[in-house]
């Protein structure tokens, strides 16, 4: 691993692992791995497991609903750690703000551009995670120097603001706070883009999910502190439990349902709770217990997260998936492999090739940054 992964003093390998896992899962979706497996219709527990690799249709929570919160939260953690290291070099908040603002602009452009790739023509859509992250990063950075208490209060106010907006601004046709296509978020999309999302996603998710990025900053501040590893793990676990109790509590008491597509406050809290627990587990396994012998397999992807995300959503989606399918499905057909099984082989092959690209880049110390 030493020859591939940069070894820096004080580097938290667990964060690289977490980022890599997120990207590998997303790449699997872009390569149609989960979709092709679902088409096998194996049944039973296997099909139930595959359900976890798709978003919940509306009210509820699945594993796949945690991917974006994890992405947003770890972005906040990485931002704080980067800022912390720059401070040691004498770089001020104001000097670094220029970098953050420019990076946010790049993320916004990339996020809106990838929607055009999806549609095959120019569109004005603000639903992509990169577009969302461009705004949440700015919000989190504006208060990055404030106290834990201040940042927690701001994140809570963002969730309260979301509740107020959905419950009090009831426009004609958009007067049902938690009904798909008929809520305040959908109304705002008609204002911002002149249309609503067919799958129920809304642009103003940037308000509640900014809490995820702020919480990521808090996690970064904790991990960079002088507290012992045991204390850090304890705080992460406590934060995770609080998030789960509050999130599922709001849902079970029928105050606010857990709905990922409009990022309700209950969803934001519950998903944040799960991510904190995952962060605690990985920190304990990777950075404390040093069970990292094979971490490089995941880390090589995490180190080029923006590049591979954009690659599998553009070149992969528009060309590589189909190019690989031509040969894999073709040869599979020649030896009598069923079409549905060959589709799985094709998807897995593309997935491995994209991992190989990340490995090749990491081996040559090529890391794409914004």
From TrEMBL:
Keywords: Membrane, Transmembrane, Transmembrane helix
Transmembrane domains' residue ranges: 66-83, 126-143, 150-169, 233-250, 262-286, 292-312, 319-337, 343-362
Coiled-coil annotated residue ranges, if any: none
Keyword flag Transmembrane: yes
Keyword Transmembrane found: yes
PANTHER family according to UniProt: LD22376P
Name listed for the protein in its UniProt record: DUF5009 domain-containing protein
